[in-house]
Amino acid sequence: MPVWKLHGNGRDITPGAVVTPHERLNWPATMAMGVQHVVAMFGATFLVPTLTGFPVPTTLLFSGVGTILFLLVTRNRMPSYLGSSFAFIAPITAATAQGAIGSALAGVVAVGVLLAIIGVVVNVAGVKWVDALMPPVVAGAIVALIGFNLAPTAWNNFQADATAATITLVATILFSVLFRGFLGRISIFLGVLVGFLYAIATGWFGQVNPDTGLTPAETIDQAAWIGAPTFHIPDFASASTWSTLAMFLPVVLVLVAENVGHVRGVATMTGDESLNKETGRALLADGIATTFAGLGGGSGTTTYGENIGVMAATRVYSTAVYWVAGFAAILLAFSPKVGAVFNSIPPGVLGGVTTALYGLIGIIGIKIWVDNRVDFSRPVNQYTAAVSLVIGIAGFQIKNDGFELGGIVLGTVAALVIYHAGNAIARARKTGADDGGPIPAVGQLGGDPQD
């Protein structure tokens, strides 16, 4: 059982200090902060299964289980919540459309296993080879194209109810600029809530779903308060699985960037540079958590920037808080009624929030470029970003006898090949090579602006 040292009197944080990972406040305060972390991650975590058709309670369960596994593998040194990764949305949607949920889960498992292997390698060999493979211009391009590749999906949902979508989008933006701190960080959740209330006011919950023969209100009413989540198993036997598996591979690069950035960010904020040594374990832990999720029917996980924002605001980095958050999410998962509520969110509301959400994923990639001052006067950087983004946004495809490579895969390959091959030529010819640099401490957007 983990043991934490009490910080000061257990109630107040020493001026100029932080509550370190091996410290804690008193248990009532720790439990309250743990619940706050659940709320902070909830807005993003429930959206992934809602958009992909995965069971919401199952995804919540594996996010809680994944968080506990992460704490165990990192030896209780690295504070982090593992929520649903947005990077899985595009490949899961495509895999489900071509096959079924089993094919999508096989892709999640494949990503988890590969990420765990990378974690073991990093733990042994260090992280410098990752920096060399994926310098900022490449990392930023891959993250950006994954977000922008989803733009057509947002538009399809938006058209289902343009009024609800617009109200949701405007509310999301207003909450993000009106408030700082906790309310600002959950602006996406609050925007969906406003859209949800609009749907109630306009009679959405009285409309019969032709697939079930029930109205959303009836579906929610019939759902039990307590019950086991719905589990699914991956399908590695179907031909459709193997034709879509390649679409999941670029997600590994995104998860590597997010985990490395998370570790570096926490190490910087706590002033404990020794935490950087946990990078390999963090990758291994997220890989194991993602594998478990895929084996049971949940979406892949990643370290959450939303929760980094909460830690930065509270100055509490205690891992005890995340033990509370993990178990709270697990308890919440055993309520079918919660899943029914989220499954009843109208397409128009989802269209409004995903217009912002998918764009924000792309902006994270651009933020990587900005934070690292990527020099776009160099042709190798120009074409690495330009070609990969157009491929991802346009949704380029290669199809051959049932095997398909989509825009995310092709864009990722283009970014890697153009950068490394072009850089080798530019260095030999002295025409403006780029020396790259380490992956920055950048994850999902979150936290308060610094005045």
Automatic annotation (TrEMBL):
<keyword id="KW-0813">Transport</keyword>
<feature type="transmembrane region" description="Helical">
    <location>
        <begin position="239"/>
        <end position="257"/>
    </location>
</feature>
<comment type="similarity">
    <text>Belongs to the nucleobase:cation symporter-2 (NCS2) (TC 2.A.40) family.</text>
</comment>
<keyword id="KW-0472">Membrane</keyword>
<dbReference type="GO" id="GO:0005886">
    <property type="term" value="C:plasma membrane"/>
</dbReference>
<dbReference type="GO" id="GO:0042907">
    <property type="term" value="F:xanthine transmembrane transporter activity"/>
</dbReference>
<dbReference type="InterPro" id="IPR006043">
    <property type="entry name" value="NCS2"/>
</dbReference>
<feature type="transmembrane region" description="Helical">
    <location>
        <begin position="104"/>
        <end position="125"/>
    </location>
</feature>
<feature type="transmembrane region" description="Helical">
    <location>
        <begin position="80"/>
        <end position="98"/>
    </location>
</feature>
<protein>
    <submittedName>
        <fullName>Nitrate reductase</fullName>
    </submittedName>
</protein>
<keyword id="KW-0812">Transmembrane</keyword>
<feature type="transmembrane region" description="Helical">
    <location>
        <begin position="54"/>
        <end position="73"/>
    </location>
</feature>
<keyword id="KW-1133">Transmembrane helix</keyword>
<feature type="transmembrane region" description="Helical">
    <location>
        <begin position="405"/>
        <end position="422"/>
    </location>
</feature>
<feature type="transmembrane region" description="Helical">
    <location>
        <begin position="162"/>
        <end position="179"/>
    </location>
</feature>
<feature type="transmembrane region" description="Helical">
    <location>
        <begin position="186"/>
        <end position="206"/>
    </location>
</feature>
<dbReference type="Pfam" id="PF00860">
    <property type="entry name" value="Xan_ur_permease"/>
</dbReference>
<feature type="transmembrane region" description="Helical">
    <location>
        <begin position="320"/>
        <end position="342"/>
    </location>
</feature>
<feature type="transmembrane region" description="Helical">
    <location>
        <begin position="132"/>
        <end position="150"/>
    </location>
</feature>
<feature type="transmembrane region" description="Helical">
    <location>
        <begin position="348"/>
        <end position="370"/>
    </location>
</feature>
